Structure formats: structure tokens, C-alpha cells
Amino acid sequence: MLNIVLFGPPGAGKGTQSQKLLDKYNLIHLSTGDLLRSEIAAGTALGLEAKKLMDNGLLVPDEVVIGMIENKVKEHRQAAGFIFDGFPRTVPQAQGLDKLLQDNDTEISAMIALKVDDEELTKRLLLRGQTSGRPDDQNEELIRKRVNEYNTKTKPVADYYAGQGKYFAVDGIGEIEEIFKALCQHIDALKEKQEENK
Ligand code: B4P
């Protein structure tokens, strides 16, 4: 299986690039942000709880997102692989994901990080906020809080995968197509390696 963690701060282009990668590599897209927003739209108890945190730029508890991902991985046991978008966002989530994949006889192939500076992130998210209607994209203070959550809780996840020799980074600033090409180069190299080891 080809299991990719697409990593980066809020607004780095994870969702944008995931959509393109799915089409090319026939993978299942698991975005915890999207899963949480569907819970909110459906008005579930989990959604109501998550909404309070998300609207304030804070992370949702680890056990909630790990549980959601577990259900989805089990639903798609026959998949060619997964793109994890916006997950894991903390080291305990990364550990939970490793265990879950191990229980399903697979593992993370690589984490690929999109590198974008804070000023560009703020600009992109404020722009998206003009049309997305997402409460967490509406003001600069909230966006900075999300970036701060990323810097304190999420960044260490990169070290976690670097420790396993699975961390790669690409420049997330520039044309969407160019960034996509850079991601594909890494993924094609991984696929080749998997073929050689078969
Ligand atoms: P997410 O839905 O994951 O939101 P995001 O990080 O804001 O989005 P993303 O990074 O995918 O957006 P994209 O760059 O594609 O999370 C939302 C909230 O849910 C979190 O704050 C948290 O509360 C909660 N949550 C989710 N997962 C969680 C977890 N695992 N644990 C705990 N809590 C969790 O797009 C941004 C904008 O940039 C778009 O408008 C796009 O068009 C634009 N863009 C993309 N690429 C560009 C480029 N190259 N140039 C210019 N603009 C570009």
C-alpha cells in the first residue's frame, strides 16, 4: 500500500494538492478537517463539541480524530493506499496511526511537507475566508492562533517521521501545478522503491 501523510501548516495547500493526488494515484483521501466539518453539518454530538474548538482555532482531542480515522481505514481495507490530509497533527496522533496501520498489516510510506511561511498562510486563509464561509478563516487573530497551534503541537510530528527516515519536504509557494509536480516526483520514487522491494 502507498500511505502518504501530506503535512503542513493551515493553508499550506494540503487540501488543494490532495485532490490532485487522488486522481493520479487512485488513493483514498482522509481529511480530518473534512470529516469534522461533516460531523458539524450533520449536527452530531461529536460535531457540536468539535465546532467549539475549531471555531476558536484549537485542535480537537486526539482520541476523537484517531477514532474517526480508524473507522475509515477499516472501511477501505482493500484500497491501494491513503492520503492522510491534516492528520496526524500531534505526536500521540502519529503514534496512534502507526499502531492502527500495523494492526492492518501496513505502514506510512512517507510524510511529505509543504513549506510555506506565516505571512503567505495568513494571506491565503483570509482570501479563502471571503468565500468559504469557514468561521476559522474569518480573521487574522484566529488564523495566527491556528498557526501557533501548528508551531507548538503539530511541528514535532515532522521530527517523529524524520526519526523513521520518512520525512520529505517540498516548497509550497508557487504555482499549484509546479508544487504538484514536485510532490509527484517524491511519490513516483517511493512507488519505484516499493516495486523493487516486492
Ligand atoms: P483543516 O481542514 O485541515 O484545515 P486547513 O489546515 O485550514 O486546510 P488546508 O491546509 O487543507 O487548506 P489548503 O492549504 O488546501 O483543519 C481545520 C481545523 O480542524 C483545524 O484548525 C482543527 O481545529 C481541526 N482539525 C482538523 N484535523 C485535526 C486533527 N488531526 N487533530 C485535531 N484537530 C483537527 O487551502 C488554503 C487556501 O490556499 C485555499 O484557498 C487554496 O486555494 C489556497 N492555495 C493552495 N495552494 C496555493 C498556492 N500554491 N498558491 C496560492 N494559494 C494556494
From TrEMBL:
Matching Pfam families: ADK
UniProt xrefs under InterPro entries: Adenylat/UMP-CMP_kin, Adenylat_kinase_CS, P-loop_NTPase
Binding site for AMP: T32, R37, L58, L59, V60, G86, F87, P88, R89, Q93, R134, R146
CDD domains for this protein: ADK
Pathway this chain belongs to: Purine metabolism; AMP biosynthesis via salvage pathway; AMP from ADP: step 1/1
Region described as NMP: 31-60
Reaction equation(s) it catalyzes: AMP + ATP = 2 ADP
PROSITE patterns reported in the protein's UniProt record: ADENYLATE_KINASE (PS00113)
Assembly notes: Monomer.
Homology family: Belongs to the adenylate kinase family.
NCBIfam families: PRK00279.1-3, PRK14527.1, PRK14528.1, PRK14531.1, PRK14532.1
Function: Catalyzes the reversible transfer of the terminal phosphate group between ATP and AMP. Plays an important role in cellular energy homeostasis and in adenine nucleotide metabolism.
Protein name (record): Adenylate kinase
Species this chain originates from: Pontibacter mucosus
Gene designation: adk
